[in-house]
Write a structure and sequence with these properties.
Four Helix Bundle (Hemerythrin (Met), subunit A); Immunoglobulin-like; binds 2-acetamido-2-deoxy-beta-D-glucopyranose; 25 strands; 546 residues; 7-stranded antiparallel β-sheet; single chain; binds protoporphyrin IX containing FE; 3 domains
Length: 546
C-alpha cells in the first residue's frame, strides 16, 4: 500500500514537474502552487493585475474578471484563477468563459470553480465571467500567473468585491452573527443584525443592519456595559448620505469619532427604514485595541436617531451578546442574544405576580366566591375584602412595573407589547376609581356598574394575557422559547377553572344540588396551588434570562 502511494505521488510529481501545457490543473486547486520542479514563486510585485467589472454584487450577478499584464511586452503562458471568500479560503461562485485562451476547471466537488490556460500560447490578458453564488460574502479573485515554466507569481489578487445583499446563510460557519430576534435574517425588516469575520491580523469584515431612523452601530467591549468600547457606526445624514465611522466610547456619552479606514469598499443602503452597512477594516488603523489585548469581546448592536449632519444620538435599541465572543474565529461561533437588563426582568416578574396570582385570584373571588365567602369580615363580605385587597395590589404592582420599564427604556422602543401594556395600565387605573363611586348594591342602576366593571375586567384580562405573552417572547432567550409555552399552559389551567366554577354556579342556580361550598373552596385551593407552581416556573425562567 505504502509503496503504491509513493508510486502514485511520484507519478504526480512527474506530471507537475513536466508542467501542464493543457492547463488541466485541478490538482493544484487548493494550494494554487505550480510545483514546477524546484522553482519557487517570485517575491517581487507581480507584473500582472486582476480587474473586476463591479466592486459589489448580489447573488446571481455576473462579474467580468480580467487578468492582464502591466505592459504589452510582459506576457504570460499559464494561470490559475479562483474566487476566494474573503476571510476564509472557501471557493465562491462559478465561472464561465468565452475566451479562446481559457478553460473552466472543477475543484474537488465544486464544478466550474476555477479558470486556467488551455495552451502555452503567450497572452497579455484573459477574461472570464464569474457568477455570484447564494452564500458568497466578500470575495477576492486570486491567481497564480506563469510568465514561463520557472518564472511565476502566486497570490495575485483583485480588489475585494462585497456582497450587496447581507445574508445570515453563513452565520456560525463563516462569520459570527449577533441578531435580535434570535436567528433572524437581515432581509427581514424587523431584524437587528451584525456579523463579523476576520480577514487578516486585526482586520475584519463587518456587516450591520437594522430598522432605524438614524444609525446602527456595533461595539466591542471588555465588559457588557457602555464605556471603553470600540464602535463602528453606520449613520445617515439629512441628505440621505450614509457615513461609516469608527470611534471610541469614553463613557455613556456620544463616542469620539474618526473616519473609518477601510481596505475594502463600503456598501450601504437605506430602504424601508432599514439601514445597512458593510465594510472591511484595514489591518491596522481601525484595530480593536482593547487594554486586555485579547480578541474576545462583548459585542453590542445598537440603533437610534441621528442629527442632520449624521451625528448620533442616544440609542433606542441595545442588543448585547450574552458572553464574550472570540472574533478571531468564526467557525462554531453561534449566534448569541442579549441578556435582558435586570430592570426589564424586574418589570416582567412584577407583571407576572400581578396577573398570574393577585389579579387572577382576585377576579375569581369576585365572580365565584360571593356565596362561599359571603360571611362578613371587618364590616364587609369576606370575598369583597379579599377581592378589593388583591385588585388594589394588582394595580399597584402593575404601576410599579410600568414605571420601572419606562424609566429604564427612556424612549419608545415600539412594538405591540408596550402598546397593549399602556392600554392595560390605563384601564386598570380606572377600575378602582370607578369602583370607589359605585352606587349602593340596592340602587336601581347598580347593574350598570356591575356590568361595566365586569366588562372592563374582561377586556383588561384579555389584553393583559396578550401583553404578557408578547413580553415573554421578548424576554425569553432560551433556544426553544419555553416560557411562552408554559404561559399557554397556565392560561389553559385558568380556563379550566373558569369552566368548572361557571358550571358549578350554573347548576346551583338551577337548584340541581344543595348549597354547600366545599366544591368552591377546594377548587380555589387547587387553583391557587397551580397558579403558584406556574408562577415559580416562569420566575425561574426570568431569572435565567439575565
Ligand atoms: C450619543 C450616543 C450615546 C449616548 C448618549 C449613550 C448613552 C447611554 C446611557 C445614558 C446608557 C445608560 C443606560 C440607559 O440609560 O439605557 C447607555 C447604555 C448603553 N450603551 Fe450607550 N449611548 C450612546 C451611544 C452608544 C453606542 C454607539 C454604543 C455601542 C455601539 C452604545 C452601547 C451601550 C450599551 C451596550 C449600553 C448598556 C445598555 C444596558 O445596560 O441595557 N451606546 N448609553
Ligand atoms: C454593480 O452591481 C450592482 C448590484 O448588482 C448594480 O446595481 C450595478 O449597476 C453594477 N454596476 C455596474 C457598473 O455594472
Ligand atoms: C436565517 O434567517 C432565517 C429567517 O429568519 C432563519 O429561518 C434561519 O434559521 C437563519 N439562518 C441562520 C444560519 O441563522
Ligand atoms: C474625514 O474624512 C474627510 C474627507 O475624507 C476629511 O475632510 C475629514 O477631515 C476627516 N475627519 C477626521 C476626523 O479625520
Ligand atoms: C500598526 O499598529 C502598530 C501598533 O499600534 C503600530 O506600531 C504600527 O506602526 C502600525 N502600522 C501601520 C502601518 O499603521
Ligand atoms: C451628508 O454627507 C454628505 C457626504 O459626506 C455631504 O456631502 C452632505 O453635505 C451632508 N449633508 C449634510 C446635511 O450634512
Amino acid at each position: 500500500m505504502g509503496r503504491f502511494m509513493t508510486l502514485l505521488i511520484c507519478l504526480g510529481c512527474l506530471g507537475i514537474a513536466l508542467g501542464y501545457p493543457d492547463g488541466k490543473i485541478s490538482v493544484a486547486c487548493d494550494s494554487m502552487l505550480p510545483s514546477h520542479g524546484g522553482n519557487v514563486a517570485q517575491t517581487s510585485v507581480a507584473p500582472y493585475i486582476i480587474t473586476v467589472s463591479n466592486t459589489s454584487f448580489i447573488p446571481g450577478d455576473k462579474i467580468t474578471v480580467t487578468i492582464k499584464s502591466n505592459s504589452p511586452s510582459t506576457t504570460f503562458e499559464g494561470f490559475l484563477l479562483q474566487a476566494r471568500l474573503f476571510g476564509g479560503d472557501g471557493i465562491a461562485g462559478t465561472f464561465t468563459t468565452t475566451d479562446s485562451n481559457a478553460q473552466i476547471l472543477p475543484c474537488g466537488a465544486q464544478a466550474r470553480a476555477a479558470v486556467s490556460h488551455n495552451s502555452k500560447v503567450s497572452k497579455t490578458s484573459i477574461t472570464a465571467l464569474w457568477t455570484a453564488s447564494q452564500e458568497a460574502g466578500p470575495v477576492r479573485f486570486r491567481a497564480t500567473v506563469l510568465n514561463s515554466f520557472s518564472n511565476f507569481w502566486i497570490g495575485v489578487e483583485s480588489d475585494t468585491i462585497v456582497a450587496l445583499k447581507m445574508s445570515n446563510a453563513t452565520c456560525g460557519s463563516q462569520k459570527f452573527c449577533l441578531t435580535d430576534p434570535t436567528n433572524c435574517s437581515p432581509s427581514d425588516n424587523t431584524c437587528y443584525f451584525m456579523s463579523s469575520s476576520p480577514v487578516s491580523t486585526n482586520g475584519y469584515v463587518f456587516e450591520m443592519s437594522g430598522p432605524t431612523p438614524g444609525y446602527v452601530a456595533i461595539g466591542f467591549s471588555d465588559d457588557n456595559k457602555m464605556g471603553n468600547d470600540d464602535v463602528f457606526i453606520c449613520t445617515k445624514n439629512s441628505s440621505g448620505n450614509i457615513l461609516v465611522q469608527h470611534g471610541y466610547n469614553t463613557g455613556t456619552v456620544a463616542p469620539t469619532m474618526r473616519n473609518v479606514s477601510s481596505a475594502g469598499s463600503i456598501v450601504s443602503s437605506y430602504k424601508n427604514g432599514v439601514l445597512k452597512c458593510s465594510f472591511i477594516t484595514s489591518s491596522n488603523s481601525s484595530t480593536l485595541q482593547r487594554a486586555s489585548g485579547s480578541s474576545s469581546y462583548y459585542v453590542f448592536l445598537v440603533s437610534g436617531p441621528s442629527n442632520a449632519d449624521g451625528k448620533i444620538q442616544k440609542h433606542t435599541k441595545v442588543v448585547i451578546s450574552s458572553h464574550k465572543v472570540d472574533l478571531s474565529t468564526t467557525t462554531s461561533v453561534t449566534t448569541s442574544n442579549s441578556g435582558t437588563s435586570s430592570v426589564v426582568l424586574g418589570h416582567g416578574s412584577l407583571m407576572l405576580i400581578a396577573w398570574m396570582t393577585t389579579g387572577s385570584i382576585g377576579m375569581i373571588m369576585a365572580r365565584y366566591m360571593k356565596s362561599a365567602a359571603g360571611k362578613p369580615f371587618l364590616g364587609k363580605a369576606a370575598w369583597f375584602q379579599v377581592h378589593f385587597f388583591l385588585m388594589i395590589l394588582t394595580v399597584i404592582l402593575t404601576m410599579i412595573a410600568f414605571i420601572m420599564v419606562f424609566v429604564n427604556v427612556a424612549g419608545w422602543s415600539g412594538g405591540v407589547h408596550p402598546v397593549l401594556g399602556c392600554i392595560v395600565m390605563i384601564l386598570s387605573f380606572f377600575q378602582p376609581f370607578a369602583a370607589l363611586f359605585r352606587p349602593d348594591p340596592k340602587h336601581e342602576r347598580r347593574f350598570i356598574f356591575n356590568f361595566g366593571h365586569g366588562i372592563n375586567a374582561f377586556v383588561i384580562k384579555v389584553l393583559a394575557v396578550a401583553a404578557i405573552f408578547l413580553g415573554l417572547i421578548l424576554v425569553d432567550i432560551s433556544p426553544n422559547q419555553w416560557m411562552p409555552k408554559v404561559m399557554g399552559g397556565f392560561y389553559a389551567w385558568e380556563v379550566l377553572f373558569y369552566i368548572i366554577l361557571e358550571t358549578n354556579m350554573h347548576l346551583k342556580t338551577k337548584d340541581i344540588y344543595k348549597n354547600d361550598y366545599k366544591i368552591e373552596i377546594v377548587a380555589l385551593a387547587i387553583f391557587i396551588c397551580g397558579n403558584l407552581a406556574f408562577l415559580v416556573a416562569l420566575l425561574v425562567g426570568i431569572g435565567q434570562s439575565a
